[in-house]
Write a structure and sequence with these properties.
By secondary structure, this protein is α/β, with parallel strands linked by helices. The protein is 45% helix and 21% strand. The chain has helices spanning 39-45, 66-78, 93-105, 119-125, 163-180, 182-190, 192-196, 200-220, 235-245, 249-266, 272-284, 295-303, 331-341; strands spanning 2-8, 11-17, 33-38, 53-57, 86-91, 111-116, 130-135, 138-145, 150-153, 308-309, 312-318, 324-330. A hairpin with a 5-residue loop joins strand 11 (312-318) and strand 12. The structure holds nicotinamide-adenine-dinucleotide and zinc ion. Zinc ion binds at residues 172, 235, 249, 253.
């Protein structure tokens, strides 16, 4: 088991990689615990949950709403949960985001922790203190920054995760390596087979290295003013592709990272051989790197990006593998690039 710590303005968060779901009991306070989970995770792992009352929500992005938050408040009130309650989110990124938001707002804030059960939640959603829900069709529109007391990443639960869900986690993992750590990128290149097979030592090392990179960036810039923007590598285009083409988040990010890599090469920041390495790694992890989409509709979606500044977008490029740089790029330039780089 490996342990690391995030020190944020809203508190400290301990991340335990390799601790087991069954071992979570030892991290819980003496006060009453309420588990928040989704129906799939409850079906698969409910029997291994620590002794506690359980609130089960549905699954899928459409339930990540204020209505769901309200039903949880309602259940907590029915349970007579007071400020001593500890909320434990056990599930994917949706469960973690909702649990963090409920815990930050119920009775003006109660203690909470996460046991993320998807690869994406282990390396991304549970780390960094962002919590929240979607509102009127806008993703993560309402939320707060707040750190869970602990995050327990148990790699064993990933074995039941569908391959496409795992791939979404791998997209974020490649992102971490590409923006921050060339050695880690090489490790991933060497470990594709083991990673895909969820070989315990390899997957645990990968989760740990990714969490280190994300938490390091978050520790330096919790509220996303500068450094943290690097985590948007592949995401500016990715979000637009996700909305326009209706592909999964991780798949859209993978395509977005490739487009950003090609744009980096076109600007002589990245060696064409490095573009090939990124493509090979993503393909090895069963992620798409190209998509036939209408460049115009993507540009329109980009125009609605909440991180847009006038006619420019903050765009993360690579000045070599392991070294992200942020540039402002006019939307008009992107349209030209998109036509050439996504629709190849
Ligand atoms: N807070 C953040 O910083 C942050 C970062 C990235 C993503 N997110 C959010 O995370 C969400 C996506 O998270 P996700 O990809 O984990 O999706 P998810 O929570 O919907 O989980 C994906 C699916 O896998 C199921 N599942 C969960 N664990 C399982 C397991 N061990 N075995 C089998 N099935 C399992 C779930 O029931 C669900 O159907 C999005 O809402 C996104 O906005 C938040
Ligand atoms: Zn992402």
């Amino acid at each position: 088991m490996k342990r690391l710590e995030i020190v944020g303005q809203t508190g400290r968060s301990q991340i335990l990689v390799g601790e087991s779901l069954a071992g979570a009991e030892g991290f819980l306070p003496d006060s009453p615990v309420v588990v928040i989970t989704d129906e799939n995770v409850f079906r698969l792992y409910g029997a291994q949950f620590p002794a506690a009352r359980v609130i089960t929500i549905g699954a899928g992005e459409s339930i990540k709403t204020l209505e769901t938050v309200q039903t949880i408040y309602d259940r907590l009130i029915q349970m007579a949960a007071d400020r001593s309650v500890f909320l434990l989110g056990i599930g994917g990124g949706i469960v973690c985001d909702i649990t963090g938001f409920v815990a930050s707002t119920y009775l003006r804030g109660v203690r909470f922790g996460y046991i993320p059960t998807t690869l994406l939640a282990q390396v991304d959603a549970s780390v960094g203190g962002k919590t929240g829900v979607n509102f009127m069709g806008y993703k993560n529109m309402v939320g707060v920054f707040n750190q869970p007391e602990f995050v327990i990443c148990d790699p064993h639960v990933l074995t039941t995760l569908p391959e496409a869900e795992r791939a979404c986690g791998f997209a974020e993992i490649v992102k971490h390596a590409a923006i921050a750590d060339a050695d880690y990128f090489e490790l991933l290149e060497r470990s594709v087979d083991g990673a895909m097979a969820l070989a315990p030592d390899i997957i645990e090392r990968i989760i740990y290295d990714s969490v280190v990179i994300k938490s390091d960036i978050v520790n330096r810039d919790e509220k996303e003013r500068g450094e943290r923007r690097k985590l948007n590598f592949g995401h500016t285009l990715g979000h637009a592709i996700e909305k326009t083409a209706g592909v999964r988040h991780g798949e859209a990010v993978s395509i977005g990272m490739m487009a950003a890599a090609r744009l980096s090469a076109a600007r002589n920041l990245l060696d064409p051989e490095e573009v090939v390495r990124i493509e090979k790694l993503l393909t090895g992890l069963k992620l798409p790197t190209d998509l036939k989409v209408d460049a115009r509709s993507i540009i329109e979606a980009l125009g609605r990006d909440k991180k847009r500044q006038g006619d420019d977008l903050f765009f993360v490029l690579l000045a070599g593998i392991g070294n992200a740089v942020i540039e402002t790029i006019p939307l008009a330039t992107l349209e030209t690039v998109l036509t050439g780089s996504i629709q190849r």
